[in-house]
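ok trying again, last paste got cut off:
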Amino acid sequence: MSRRINFIETWDKLSDTVEKVITAAPLARPVWNDKFSDIYSLCIAYPEALGENLYSATKSFLSAHVKKLSKDVHHCGEDFLTSYAKNWETYSQGAVYLNLLYHHFNHQYVTKSKQNDADIEYGFITDDKEQMLEIKDLAMEAWKEGMLVPLQHRLVNALLKDIAKDREGDLSGKNTKIHQVALYSLVAVEQHKKRNALKYYEDTFEKLFLQQTGEYYRAKALELLNDSTCSEYMNKVLSLLTDEEMRNRRFLHISSYKKTTLECQQRVIIDHIKFLQAGCRQMIRHNSTTDLLHMYMLLKSVANGLTHMVSELEAHIKETGLELVKGIKEGNIPLQFVETILEVHKRFHDLIRDTFNSDKLFVSALDRACIAAVNYSEPKQPCKAPELVSLIIITFNTSCTIPHFFVLGELRIQQQLAVCKYCDAILRRCAKGPSSDADDKLQSSILVFRYIDDKDVFQKVISLIPLWYFHSMWLCCIKPKHLASVLTYVASDIFYSRALAKRLVHTPCAMDMEEMMINRLKGVCGYDFTSKLHCMFTDVRLSTDLMQKYHQSSGKDGESPQTSINVNVLQAGAWPLSANQVEFVLPESLHKCLLHFEEFYNKKFNGRNLSWLHHLSQADVRINFTTKPYLFLLFIVQPFHNIYRTTPQPPSPVVQPNHFHSTKPYVTMSTFQLAVVILFNDATELSLSEISENTKLKSRDLERNVVALIDANILVKKEQEKKLDEHSVVCVNMKFSNKRTKFRVAFTQTQKEQVVEVQQTHSSVADDRKLYLQAAIVRIMKARKVLHHNSLMEEVINKSRIRFTPSVSAIKRSIEALIEKSYIERSPESPDQY
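nice, full thing came through this time. structure:
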């Protein structure tokens, strides 16, 4: 209940307690409680509250008390800092206790009169002196006005002097806590302010400190430059900066840490950055990892400080990579090419990881340098990295080598691009489980693949590697006394995507690895790049179900031919193959088999057309005139394009169930070669004109197939003539023998044909790019409606970069083509707007 109170009498009793509290003297609990009640009574006094009187009296008391302390500190002489710190600690502690004693006053008067944060934020605030402060904040203001203002210069000079002594090592043995306490007082006196709470500390001490620091380190840097090499200079500067950082934490307020560091860096690094950069190139070339680490530590915190260092490292990596790549001249060029790039990448990746802490700037420099090395080409020559990388990916999955060579900048095919059995080695290893070695090599190849600009060329060129995959079989009844029994009819193709399907029909392990490979390619280039490859997985699964139904249907109707067949039907869009233009008559025994399957397929699907690619097919042939078993693998090596393809797989034999265990030799050959060989079941010798009449093969194709059989020593020329013509006569080699029982006889291309294929591939890439750019422009314009020329060019380049880097002229030609086709038009208002 409010009552009348005599303020003077109450304050006389209260002031004694306030003095004991502010001096941190002992105080009994009953006295504390009584005085707490007295303050409460003054705040609710009747008829008028005496809070403002209490505030004024307390302010006057604190001011008088601080002035008294100031006089005592001023006369302390050499113990000035110690006396100041001791009095501040006592006073600041007493101010906290006094604030608790005035709790009701603070809540009743001060808190309610404070302006809110919105007023402070938007500038609607009066002078801080006109506002009523909490008692603790009032005590801080009294200390500032009564102690710091008169002793400010003396205090700051004493602090700066001791910090300078510490830099010289002359302050050892002194208690640095005194300095911390003294510096904290400069911060604490205005900490209650909502805005510019550190202004007094910054104006009175920090500015002078930073000035002194800058002068010290400017002189120190000049001294070190005169006496040290670049390496020694960096070592000493790092030591100085480390010591200064520890000194900051012993003396300064946390707000000064960064400012002090920046000032030091300015004087010892930025002011002399050219001196540091001058030694950067030699450090990189001599692989001075320690010096590079020191330079990185010095420059990483400086704005744009690493730019020169990154540029030097990028130039060195690029120079090293190009030098090694240009040095590849002999041997397995693709293998050496990729291993060279991987070696360069690993060497500098380890350097960046261990020395530069995998800094993104240096990682990006490594990527740019590797891109330059991978995509290097001589002037006016296309880059050969896609060919090399595509070949090396194949080589990693095979047990054979590719007899060819490349010269950087100029593609030369010395003899031939021979057969490369895609993934044979991996499949054999995967039969017992996944091969980590093969997976690591594929992953490494993907790393190089990421650096290829023309990924669409990679996609095309890799298809030039000839690969056999699905095996289809027809079993035909041929006269046993004659040369051969046809056991298998194998369809084959040569594109990378078809090679993927080969592994799908083997072991699950190989399929898993192939899916991982495709996912890696998709991760680099996106789904569009590998969509057709994914379709192949679906085709294989559907073809397996289709053949099960076909065999069941053939068994029920009893109309199955003597030859059993397994066929894989693949989508036209997923398999970029084309039908063969070579005129050819299929042997009658095989023709019936194909007709039977087509009849089944047409009943099941309407409107679909099957194209049998005889030029990509091969057959297993058993030789019946030898006593020793042989297995010959004869095949043709060349890329093809088709629309639909059917791929039969090995069935159980019909005529001779145990033919795989027969002691008779087997020969695997192309369909054209098969048609030639079957003729010798009814004749002992034939001229090329007779063979041509029966098979309808033209002289060029016929000669190539006959030469392959002669090279395999299955047929022999009756007369030892150097060149075959239409009158040349060939016959069966009845004396055939060989140390091996299994043979693979390659049917190779000429060098001219290989060069033509490479040229056709690059032409195909150019055509694909035109369509891709036009489609990209149309998609962009449909989304943006109206676009300026430069903006359109930029968006097209960004959109195409994932597959290739288009030239400006190519984009302009695509724009003009779309304008002619009326897909887009120029704006009538501006000629550079579409």
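cool. The chain is about 60% helix and 5% strand. Residues 204 and 774 are 68 Å apart (CA to CA).
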